[in-house]
Amino acid sequence: MQNPPHDPGSALAIRTQYRQSQGRAARLRLLVDTGQELTQLTPAAMRERVLARACAFLAMDHGILLERDADAQVRTTASQGSHERLSSLDCRVDTSMHAPCWHEQPGALLSNVLRVPLRGGDGDTFGTLVLANSVGINAPDNEDIESLQLLATLLAAHLENDRLLTALIARDRTLSDLVNRLFRAQEDERKRMAYDLHDGLAQTLAGLHQRLQGFAGRCPPLPDALDADLQAILTLAQHCVGEGRQLIGGLRPTVLDDFGLLTALDKEADRLREAGIVVHWTERCETRLPHSVEIALFRIAQEGINNILKHAQASQVRLALALHEGQASLRVDDNGKGFAMEQPLDTGGSRHLGLAAMQERASLLGGRLTCASRAGCGTQLHVSVPFDLEQATQ
């Protein structure tokens, strides 16, 4: 069997198609492989990897990545090649450039230069990928340049995402600091008001009650109607004294400072007992904790008890305070009517705002608060925060 006659034209066409397919495969590998790598790299490593791949893709021996910072100053964020030759490049970022630009500079240290803009999501150019070669070469074809532009766009998207994430983290840190200061100012104001009430109005009410008791003891027998009025006045005065003490205790529980978190929580649970709700302690821990931890856990429990008294219609409440592996854990569970948890904690009315405040108190200490509830199935509140016993003993 004879072989078909050799056709030089067909062989050339096949060779051309093969080279074109190889070129397309190389471009595809450049984008796919780099895109997968960038998701696992730090911003600095992203810049170095993209620059190295871009230089290798066009077989160019020098490269530099230029970026404008927030103060409009141009910085070199990655480089490859001889510093002496790179210093001969124009290191400005042309914000009006929106497409790659090829330059030929015969006789220069770097005879060929390709500039590829880095553009943000708003379309503004904030950087430039500069590739250069010390030996003259032919200009890359349009498909190669388009691939490099896609690569630069991919890098720009990752860098912009990192900038946005960094700004978001800084904003969140600032917000947390402001909330922490707000909580501290709130505690200081509550402390001041508690002391003012104790030294002023509470003392006056206590003195009034004592004077009325003394007057009633020295008063001659009165008609039944007047005696009933006097006893009602004594009862009202005694009730005012009790409410004043309860108000002072809510503003700044001295029992927390004097006897610790467990005693303060049990004292706060008296409000539940007075409302006819049975209170069970499932775990008790008398260890003193750092002041910030005790205040936060007490306020969280206080808000939880307020919610139970206002909304839950519960008959039983289970409390637990425990320490385990450097974590202080507090639980407040009730068997009340519960509520739906579909809405985020910070959008569902005053009760959910209270839960959001509790969550913020826990997060400021590096802890976590969870609230599980369903209609008709009660509510389970659990908060866990880290602590250092050495701080509590100082």
TrEMBL record:
UniProt-listed InterPro entries: GAF, GAF-like_dom_sf, HATPase_C_sf, HATPase_dom, His_kinase_dom, Sensor_HK_TwoCompSys, Sig_transdc_His_kin-like_C, Sig_transdc_His_kin_sub3_dim/P
CDD domains tied to this protein: HATPase_UhpB-NarQ-NarX-like (cd16917)
PROSITE patterns in alphabetical order: HIS_KIN (PS50109)
Biological role: Member of the two-component regulatory system NreB/NreC involved in the control of dissimilatory nitrate/nitrite reduction in response to oxygen. NreB functions as a direct oxygen sensor histidine kinase which is autophosphorylated, in the absence of oxygen, probably at the conserved histidine residue, and transfers its phosphate group probably to a conserved aspartate residue of NreC. NreB/NreC activates the expression of the nitrate (narGHJI) and nitrite (nir) reductase operons, as well as the putative nitrate transporter gene narT.
All copies of domain Histidine kinase, residue ranges: 297-389
Protein name: Oxygen sensor histidine kinase NreB
Cofactor: [4Fe-4S] cluster
Pfam family name, one: GAF
Origin species: Pseudomonas batumici
Keywords on record: 4Fe-4S, Cytoplasm, Iron, Iron-sulfur, Kinase, Metal-binding, Transferase, Two-component regulatory system
Enzymatic reactions: ATP + protein L-histidine = ADP + protein N-phospho-L-histidine
Enzyme Commission number(s) of this protein: 2.7.13.3
Parts forming coiled coils: none
GO cellular component: cytoplasm; membrane
MF annotations from Gene Ontology: 4 iron, 4 sulfur cluster binding; metal ion binding; phosphorelay sensor kinase activity; protein dimerization activity
Localization of this protein: Cytoplasm
